[in-house]
Amino acid sequence: MAVRGDVIAWLGSDEVGRDQFPDADVQDLDGAFVAPGFVDSHIHLSATGLAISGLDLRPAGSRQHFLRLLTDYAKAHPGQPIWGHGWDESTWPDST
Fold it and tell me: How far is CA 56 from CA 28, 53, 70, 87, 93, in A?
């Protein structure tokens, strides 16, 4: 982790950090894990969890593909609610 003043300038391999930020202070984390903090005043934890465990529909390239993904997911998870997210029908050829 390379630090410039009170700003983290690099988090990654030591070799790359030293090469890209030769003037930065380098802190050896000794194998510790660093994650960014949330700077927003709130997070949507439930929605994030549902998105992680739900049906990712970003790959859907058409209405037919969307419906196939939905059908396959419903068959694999019978009787369960479906939390689908991420589709963008504006680029589908059959979008109207």
Answer: 38, 9, 10, 8, 20
- This prediction's pTM: 0.52
- Convert the chain into a string of H (helix), E (strand) and C (coil): CEEECCEEEECCCHHHHHHHCCCCEECCCCCCCCCCCCCCCCCCHHHHHHHHHCEECCCCCCHHHHHHHHHHHHHHCCCCCCCEECCCHHHCCCCC
Cα 95 to Cα 90: distance, rounded to the nearest angstrom: 6
47-65 pLDDT, tens digit per residue, is 778 778 899 999 999 999 9
Q: Which two structure tokens, joined as six digits, stand for 37?
A: 């903090």
Query: Residues 27-30: contacts with CB within 8 Å, 24+ apart?
Result: 27/1, 27/2, 27/3, 29/1
Answer for the pair 31, 25: CB distance below 8 angstroms, yes or no: no
